[in-house]
UniProtKB/TrEMBL annotation:
This is Tripartite-type tricarboxylate transporter, receptor component TctC. The keyword Signal applies. InterPro entries: BUG, Bug_dom1. Keywords: Receptor, Signal. Residues 1-22 form the signal peptide. The keyword Glycosyltransferase does not apply.
Length: 326
């Protein structure tokens, strides 16, 4: 069940209550730990969230970049922080769902030590091929791949990342052989794709959209359950022959799980207000991110459970492992 349709569980505007600045908490500026390097899209999102939360809470929210080890360094720091609500994590599927499935041992237990208080945005992926590939639909791509003894190659940016897992989920559902070719980042992967070195990529829509619009890539389908406003003529994979297919990445806010409930309530109220600001929604829609409606705690837990089931199945079936945590 997609987030957008969990209307019954969404927090109503009326529940947002009084402005955060009227409350005694927080006593000092909270910090938002971002487990990614400065300058990227996640960092841009984090700084916009920090500004919005600061306005709601009446205290500046300080952004602290702690990149490295596939988000493990930053997530571990927040998991081990004092449970006072003053240390927040720019959480993602990687830090809360994928890493516990991919690594044999982590310095934190995501389910025990971290609590996701809000899922802020989802990032759709798009299935793209080079314009020279003689396919114009998912069905034609599947037929093309099955007609080759070794299948075709897809581009990814490493093992266990959402781009790879989305491709493997597709391969399992469609019954086609796909071979992973790893590149050191999205830019070289897309360059190889446009040159025809690989035949397909399941890319974050924000990076592929300019090349789709310029005709350097052909979009076959999007990975969301519903079509996207930025690509209204591009079908979903689910409607293209793989019912139930969905693969997105997401970002939100998490805290140490032992944070007291009154503080959690304040954080949820402030975050919900930011998520419903029209300018915030518009800004990130323009960057290919879908800002989500605020959800109650039970809906967030259900969403995370669904993510663990989906990606856990792919990771186990393909034997993907990243060994011990770095």
């Amino acid at each position: 069940m997609p987030i957008a349709r969990r209307a019954a569980l969404a927090l109503p505007l009326a529940a947002l209550g009084r402005p955060a600045a009227a409350q005694p908490w927080p006593p000092r500026p909270p910090r938002l730990v971002v487990p990614y390097a400065p300058g990227g899209l996640t960092d841009i999102l984090a700084r916009a969230l920090a500004a919005g939360l600061g306005a709601q809470l009446g205290q500046q929210v300080v952004v602290e970049n702690r990149p490295g080890a596939n988000t493990i360094i930053g997530a571990g720091a927040v998991a081990q922080a004092a449970p006072d609500g003053l240390t927040l994590l720019m959480a993602s599927g990687a830090s809360t769902v994928l890493n516990p499935l991919l690594y044999r041992q982590l310095p934190y237990d995501a389910a025990r030590d971290l609590l996701v208080v809000g899922i802020v945005v989802e990032t759709p992926l798009v299935m793209v091929v080079p314009p020279g590939l003689p396919v114009r639909s998912v069905a034609e791509f599947v037929a093309h791949a099955k007609a080759r003894p070794d299948g075709v190659n897809y581009a990814s940016v490493g093992l266990g990342n959402p781009i790879q897992l989305a491709a493997e989920l597709f391969a399992m559902g469609a019954g086609v052989p796909l071979t992973n070719v790893v590149y050191p980042g999205s830019a070289p992967a897309l360059l190889a794709l446009t040159a025809g070195e690989v035949q397909v990529m399941f890319d974050v829509i924000g990076t592929s959209l300019p090349q789709i619009r310029e005709g350097r890539l052909r979009a076959l389908a999007v990975t969301t359950r519903e079509r996207l406003a930025v690509l209204p003529d591009v079908p979903t994979i689910a409607e293209s022959g793989l019912p139930g297919y969905q693969a997105t990445t997401w970002f939100g806010i998490a805290v140490p799980r032992a944070v007291p409930e009154p503080v959690l309530a304040r954080l949820r109220t402030a975050l919900a207000a930011v998520q419903q600001e029209p300018e915030f929604v518009r800004r990130f829609a323009d960057l290919g991110l879908a800002v989500q409606p605020p959800l109650e705690a039970a809906a967030i837990e259900a969403y995370l459970a669904e993510e663990r089931e989906r990606w856990g199945g792919v990771i186990r079936a393909k034997g993907i492992s990243l060994g011990a945590a770095p």
